[in-house]
Every structure is written in C-alpha cells, then in structure tokens.
Amino acid sequence: MSLMEHVGVRPITAVAWTSNTSTCPKDFTMINITEDGSAANFTRSFAIKSGYYLCYSKDLTCGMVVSDVQLLSDKDAIPHGFCFIAEHLEAKASVSKKKRVCVRVVPVGSVDTAVLDIKLTAKSKMMLQHYTYVGDIHGYVLWCRKGRFSNPMPQAKPRSVSLDIRKLSLDQTSVPLPLRPSNPPPLAPYSKLSQRRHSLQIKDNLDKPADSSIHGITALDGVPFSLHPKFNIQANGTNHLLNSQINNIRIKSLQDIENEYNYTFAVEEKATKRTRPSLSSD
C-alpha cells in the first residue's frame, strides 16, 4: 500500500450532496473537479443547467468515521449498517435516485481502518493508484481509498488548582508546618486527673500493635490461661494450710497504708533548725 497510510491522515467522517459552495456545510470539502480535469457537476438532465456536487468532511468532533462506501440502484435494498448520504441543496433542487451513494458510519474507536479519501474521474478507463473502484454514477466513476488513520489524542482540559502556586517555591528554606484541622474539638479544662488519663491513653496506644499483621502477634497469643493446681482452692480442698493463708490475706486501704508507714521527719526537721557554730577569727 501507499506510504501515505503511515502518515497522520484523518479519515472521512461524512459524505453529502451540495448544490454549490454557498450550500456546502461548514468543515466540508466540495469536489468540484475530477482527477482528469473535468467539472464534477452532477446534472439531472441536459435541460437543467444547475446541478449538485459531492462533498465530504473530516471533522472528528462527532466521534464517527466512514468505514465503507457503496453505490446502489433504485431497485437495490440498502445493506445493514449503511445509510444514504445527506443532501444540502437549494430550494426545489433534488438528486437523481437512479444511483444513490450510501455509507457505513461507525464510532471512531471501533475500527482501525476507514475511508481516507474519495475522488471522481470522468473516464472509466483511467485508474487511480491505491484507490478502490466503487462504481459508475451519472457518467462519473467514484473511487475511495481505505487505510489506517491517525486518531488525534484529546486535549486535557485545564483544571482549577485550589492551592496558590505563587506561594510555592523550590528555594523555600522554612520547614512546612504540620496540617491542623480547621475546627478542632474544644479543649477540656486542665486538671491533674485529665493529665494522668491522657498519659495513660498515650501509653496504651504505644503498647498496641500498629496493625493486625503477623508483626503484632506474640508467642502467647492463643494460649489458654489456667491456674496452677496447687493454687486452685476449689480443686485442692485438702490443702488447709494454703487455704488458711489465702483467707488471712488482708486488703489494706489507703488510710491503713498511710497510718502504717507514716513518718513525720521530725528528726530531720530538728537537725535543720540547729545553729551552726561560728568560727571566731583570731
């Protein structure tokens, strides 16, 4: 095939009839001359001077491409997936229905090859290289060239950035401050009890593993707890000595502990009140 297939060639996205340049839609190219230099004006009859032209578009904004082109007579049924081309004509103008052009239009992402170009010749004996013969229509020969096409990448839409980029700098020497919540919970009144509770919560969080992975599992996990038989009072009812010792254990209150271990530091206080002898200078 031609090397043009490997170049960035856009496919044809629509084919239509038009009366002249004024009725030709925007983004369409009108074929007003054949490849052998003749006028490409399709006239209905010799009595009517005005005629119509073929035109095509390569605008990919519609997201569709023409994958095939066929010529049908008025007695042929239109194939599945094909449609007759549109007509952009002047008022009271019409196209001959003896031979009609129909195209197959598919989404651009569903095919790798499509119709890249269409041309007309006035003499059927003339052959166009790299083009496929479609058929004869009203004294002209319709040709099309198929091949791989280049689908332009969609341009990314600019997004609004919430941060002020002007404040960002690679030469910034100051250490960035940590992020803080905009609405922190109200602080509780300071007290010794709350401070103690806070320290216990921090210690408890440090003792917990970071996750439930294998690194947080210890050797005691899953081992059932049981009391040694000699300390089990219900099972070992014959050990009266141990039972009596356990029953004689007295749980002391805070006041009992302070009364038992109270020390007034009276001796130390008297020692601090003694006057030191002064050294007389001779």
Produce the secondary structure layout:
Blueprint: E1 14-18, E2 28-31, E3 53-57, E4 64-73, E5 82-84, E6 86-88, E7 99-107, E8 113-121, E9 132-137, E10 140-148, H1 192-207, H2 240-247, H3 254-260, H4 266-273
Parallel strand pairs: 1-6
Antiparallel strand pairs: 1-3, 2-3, 4-7, 5-7, 8-10, 9-10
Question: What this model shows, in words?
Answer:
By secondary structure, the protein is an alpha+beta fold. It is built from four helices and ten strands. It has a four-stranded mixed sheet, with no helix packed on it. A three-stranded antiparallel sheet has the order 4-7-5, with no helix packed on it. A hairpin with a 2-residue loop joins β9 and β10 (140-148). The radius of gyration is 49 Å and the shape is rod-shaped. The termini are far apart. The model is unreliable at 1-6 (pLDDT under 50).
For the largest beta-sheet, the strand count, sense and barrel status come to:
4 strands, mixed
Principal-axis shape: rod-shaped
Structural class: alpha+beta
The number of strands is 10
Low-confidence stretches: 1-6
Report how far apart the termini are.
128 Å
> Could you tell me the strand content as a percent range?
15-25%
Instruction: Please list the strands of the largest sheet in the order they lie side by side.
Output: 2-3-1-6
Range of helix content: 10-25%
Order of helices and strands: EEEEEEEEEEHHHH
